[in-house]
């Protein structure tokens, strides 16, 4: 009996991946993850690592976890860039006051009229 020098990964079929992946994607969807990948929010294309053995395509749970982690990292980079750009934009511009509402304008007018009447009365 020969000993294996390296542990062989536990390959799983794309059909099995479709059953265990979050959201229960179709087998065709998992195939697209392998072939075309998924574009992260930062524009990076992330592919699910796979092997072809004979006429079948396999991946591993580890590769599936790695695929999800890389997508999450791509999204995190995108959100960090968005936050940084928003902070730069906020720091570079003064905040303009919003125009007063009709109620606020009417209220200000009433206060001004009352102050005029009080001034005429000497109060």
Helix and strand succession?
Answer: EHHEEEEHH
Largest sheet features:
3 strands, antiparallel
Strand content: 5-15%
Helix content: 55-70%
Q: Can you tell me about this structure?
A:
The protein is α+β, with helices and mostly antiparallel strands and 123 residues long. It has four helices and five strands. It has helices at 14-20, 27-35, 61-92, 102-121; strands at 11-13, 38-39, 45-46, 51-53, 56-60. The strands form two sheets. A three-stranded antiparallel beta sheet has the order 1-5-4. Strand 2 (38-39) and strand 3 form a beta hairpin. The longest helix has 32 residues, at 61-92. The radius of gyration is 31 Å and the shape is rod-shaped. The relative contact order is 0.10. Mean pLDDT is 86; it is low at 1-5.
Element layout with pairings:
Blueprint: E1 11-13, H1 14-20, H2 27-35, E2 38-39, E3 45-46, E4 51-53, E5 56-60, H3 61-92, H4 102-121
Antiparallel strand pairs: 1-5, 2-3, 4-5
Helix pairs in contact: 1-2
């Amino acid at each position: 009996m020969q000993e294996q020098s390296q542990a062989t990964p536990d390959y799983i079929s794309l059909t099995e991946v479709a059953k265990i992946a979050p959201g229960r994607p179709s087998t065709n969807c998992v195939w697209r993850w392998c072939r075309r990948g998924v574009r992260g929010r930062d524009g990076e294309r992330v592919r699910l690592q796979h092997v072809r053995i004979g006429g079948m395509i396999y991946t591993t749970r580890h590769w599936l976890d790695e695929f999800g982690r890389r997508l999450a990292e791509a999204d995190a980079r995108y959100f960090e860039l968005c936050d940084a750009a928003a902070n730069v934009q906020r720091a570079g511009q003064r905040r303009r006051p919003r125009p007063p509402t009709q109620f606020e304008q009417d209220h200000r007018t009433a206060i001004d009229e009352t102050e005029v009447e009080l001034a005429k009365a000497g109060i």
